[in-house]
Amino acid sequence: MIFQQGLVGALSLLLLASNVLALDFVAAGDVLLDRGVRRAIESNGPYWPLRNVGVLIQKSDLAIFNFESSLSSEWRPGTGKYRFRGEPEFLRGLSKAGFNVAVVANNHTCDFGPEGFEETFSALDKSAIKYAGVSDKPLFMEKKGVRVGILAYTDVLNTAHSTCKKLALADPVSVKADVESIRDLVDVVIVSFHWGRELEARPDDRQRTLAHAAIDSGATLVIGHHPHVLQETERYKDGLIVYSLGNFLFDNRSEEQSKAALFKCKIENGRITSPRFIPIIDKGNGPSQAGAKEAEQINARLRGTNMNGNHLQSFQFPIKEYKTGGFKMAVYRNKISTEDLMGNKVDSITIPFKSQSIIDAAFISDSQGSTIYFILKGKKEGRLGFADFNMSTGKLGEPHIDSHIEHNPWRIYSCNLDGDSIRKLCVGTRKTTRFDKTIANRLYVYGRSNGAIYPVWFGTRLGLPFIDFAVCDVDKDGVEEIITLGEKADGSRMLASFKHGDFGFDMAEIIDPESKRTGLVGYCRDSVQVRLKNSTGRINYSGSL
Asked: 163-212 pLDDT, tens per residue?
């Protein structure tokens, strides 16, 4: 038991039902809309080549592909041995298949000169497909309350860059500056590179340099293309690099070129979770999911040399990370681990419930001790747990799980709301209270004493029910506020901040009276900072993501 009984009430903010904010992401490799693919589309319609794989893509919230063609309604003079052109109406097939982001930073977007280049953008602007890869213009996408920043670059050109100056060129210095400029504006940064050498099965040093520069600067995922064959996957620090996904939709000329993969994952609470590959085969009849034998060949290629021999399914991104003195702590779905600053493993504890996983965590270190608190979530209820942490040795104590399933927590923050410099716990729960028997999401604020936590505030009534909440210091006065996303009677939403006063919480500011947000995960890391200071660097961004 970790809840101390006998104290009255708790801060109880009535909330609407809220789930962990997550979106489904999928990435495909090279897509061609000319030659044999053009003939197939002209004979059978834009969706026909993708008829067998639409079901693998359509349920994803964010689906990206490398657009290995230009779009133009007429043939124009140009240079280059291979020049690819699709008709603008061909986009309907890609859109129907579920794709909503095209990477245009490659060596074929400019096959038909500046006019064809601009016509490509014009056609995409008129479609349901956004695009990334234009110089100094990252693509921001928000789905289900999760904000993603996408940057795309080409390291390969068929014509002089002066012909199509808008293409974003791959350069480690520029990549670093661009990623750093947007990493605090979004939950996850994804970087796409058109790079490497055609038909090479392994990435070269240049690819690794660019990929590592992106991860070092704050990107979480790097997706590559151009080799037209599969290349390995690398785990680098806390990032994942997929060097080449191969040809997804192409008129393939060899056995190796016919093997490809879709990369799928969830982007959840600012992290990538559940990464996996779907092996794809295309032998001239359009891509489809590979059979067992070919799937094993594809998976073997993708495992890579820097995954410690593991399948991608065993690769995990931490849910939360903390640097505590001479140690780093990482919280995963099924374990909590510590290592020293050199990356050497110190300790690890495994969560004892196979049917439950960690969905959120908060770390507090003060005179009461150092403790990592976490929320376990099963199919129905959630439970709060904790493990003590030894700041001297880096060792973790035995995990303890609360026995009170009626609290049903789903979000947790470390917070200082009253200015006394003592960190407390703000816990989002779904339950009733003594005075309100309606089951609803609520916020509880707890103090700590002798290994237990206890509620420290009575219920506080605020103006609106809430969809979500966050905790951060909006006005930079050293005292944190509660940020709420409330829903009005007409269904519109309002973003507001509340400060602790003499008798609970008072509204400090209406941040956005007509908010379009669907959640507040990561809000205090990015959006509040953007409000308080102008963005600096190569990319200047303002406004709603």
From this structure: 788 899 999 999 999 999 998 888 899 999 999 999 999 999 999 999 99
Least confident segment among 5-14, 133-142, 349-358, 457-466: 5-14
219 & 103 share domain: yes
Q: Distance between alpha carbon 362 and the CA centroid of its chain, in Å? A: 20
Q: Which domain holds residue 84?
A: 22-268+287-314
In terms of domains, do 330 and 248 share one? no
- Tally the domains of the chain: 2
Phi, psi of 132 (to 5 degrees): -130, 150
Find the CATH number of the domain harbouring 425.
2.130.10.10
Amino acid at position 486, single letter: G
3-state helix, strand, coil in the chain (%, to 5): 15, 40, 45
Q: Is residue 513 part of a domain?
A: yes
Q: Sort 198 into a burial class: Cβ within 10 Å, 0-12 / 13-18 / 19+.
A: exposed
Q: Which of 59-63, 149-153, 212-216, 266-270 has the lowest mean pLDDT?
A: 266-270
| Long-range own/partner contacts, residues 401-408 (CB < 8 A, 24 or more apart) | 401/352, 401/353, 401/376, 402/1, 402/2, 402/3, 403/1, 404/1, 404/3, 405/381, 406/381, 406/431, 406/432, 407/3, 407/382, 407/383, 407/431, 407/444, 408/381, 408/382, 408/383
Please name the helix (run of DSSP H) or strand (run of DSSP E) that holds residue 441, with its range, or none.
strand 440-449
Please give the residue that has the higher pLDDT: either 312 or 28.
28
Q: Do 444 and 468 fall within a single domain? A: yes
User: In whole numbers, what is the pLDDT of the chain averaged over residues?
Assistant: 84
Q: Indicate whether 2 belongs to any domain.
A: no
Q: What is the pLDDT of residue 114?
A: 85
